[in-house]
């Protein structure tokens, strides 16, 4: 079981479904959901610089297509902190359509662990739990 998971998605229904499915599978102890990437970055940076008592999440489920700041821009903003994050946090792109161009673009980011399809299935969650 993981301790802390972030869900970053601008769709309330997707967040609800992801959280509910993860909770039913007893995936983690604590879930934090963010409807915009800026708030998620602020929480991550607070953990990194010690202004928050909370540790980094072990898993981030990240939607790519969001207003204001996309998932790609989120990853770009984390680039300066990449070495501090790698090894502590795994980022999974959680998307409703796996575009081959997006998969190709993802190869440029060391922080991305994998692409997962929305909604998360029990089988996918169980596979992720095996690596906890």
Give an overview of the whole structure:
- With 132 residues, the protein is α/β, with parallel strands linked by helices.
- It has one domain: Rossmann fold.
- Helix content is 40%, strand content 23%.
- It contains six helices and five strands; from the N terminus they run E-H-E-H-E-H-H-E-H-E-H.
- It has helices at residues 12-24, 37-49, 71-78, 82-85, 100-106, 122-129; strands at residues 2-8, 28-34, 59-62, 90-95, 112-117.
- Strands 2-1-3-4-5 form a five-stranded parallel β-sheet.
- Strand 1 (2-8), helix 1 and strand 2 (28-34) form a beta-alpha-beta unit.
- The radius of gyration is 14 Å and the shape is globular.
- The model has no long low-confidence stretch (mean pLDDT 94).
Features:
40% helix, Rossmann fold, alpha/beta, 132 residues, 5 strands, 6 helices
The N- to C-terminal Cα distance equals: 6 Å
Largest sheet: 5 strands, parallel
The secondary-structure class comes to: alpha/beta
- Judging by the overall fold, what is the CATH architecture? 3-Layer(aba) Sandwich
- What is the CATH H-level superfamily? Response regulator
Order of strands, widest sheet = 2-1-3-4-5
Q: Whole-number average pLDDT?
A: 94
In CATH's first tier, which class applies? Alpha Beta
Q: Report helical residue fraction.
A: 40-55%
Unreliable residue stretches: none
